[in-house]
Amino acid sequence: MPSETRHDWRREELLALLDLPLPELLFRAASVHRANFDPAEVQVSTLLSVKTGGCPEDCGYCPQAQRYHTGVDATKLMDAADVLEKARQAKAAGASRFCMGAAWRSPKDRDIPKVAEMIAGVKALGLETCATLGMLSPAQAGALKDAGLDYYNHNLDTAPEFYGEVIQTRDYQDRLDTLGHVRDAGLKTCCGGIVGMGETRAQRAGLLQALANLPAHPDSVPINRLVQVPGTPLAGTAELDPFEFVRTIAVARITMPRSMVRLSAGREAMSDELQALCIAAGANSIFYGEKLLTTGNPDVERDQALFARLGLRPMPLVHCESGHGIATGAGATVHADILEPSPACGRAA
Ligand code: SAM
Ligand code: DTB
Ligand code: SF4
Question: For residue 223, which phi and psi values (nearest 5 degrees)?
Answer without folding.
Answer: -110, 110
